[in-house]
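Folds vary. Our protein:
___
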Amino acid sequence: MAEAKKRVGRPSGDSQNRDKLILAARNLFIERDYAQVTIREIASCAGTDPGLIRYYFGSKESLFSAMIRETALPVAQLVYQSKLDIQADGPASLMQTYYTIMAKHPHFPRLMFRIAGLDQSLPENEEVTKAFYEVVNFDHIAMFKRMKDKGMLKDDIDDRCAQLSFFAMMVFPFLVPDNLLKRVGIEITPEFLQTLAKQNANLLRRGLLREKDHTDE
């Protein structure tokens, strides 16, 4: 009964309006800091009424959290699976999936990077950082320690250094300033990211894994 009352007067184009708000929020939050973006701006960018933000999400904070979760959900699902089933090609598969998804939102990792630096002790950051750590679960991502324990890595490999190198491969291409990319003749396109994913996968295999696990593309 309560749900029925909540949905009385449901706006037309229900899912489309919600998707537009998610897209508008992602674009605006990527460009500017969270505190600088207003509900009215998000609605204007989405071409909807500001009241729909409260209708669908309840608040700007909840919209922001939903945007983070929904954009990164496919990656988070694969990361969780990698924790359950450690395979030699796990890091390479995760990187390729991550690149494929982020090719659609190439500036999204910059937003996540900013969120990681927020002061978690401030009440206004609580919901945002909660969403961030639901998506970026470091216990799930820390696969190289588990690979080391299973004997998959070379004896001289430090799993902490391997983990940090993996983070750099995952994130750095999306953090490089656009003007620097232009100077070196690189454009972050889906095609380029697929090429980069294959090359980085080979680097991981040949540099970190035992010889018996090496397989050429």
DSSP finds 13 helices and no strands in the chain.
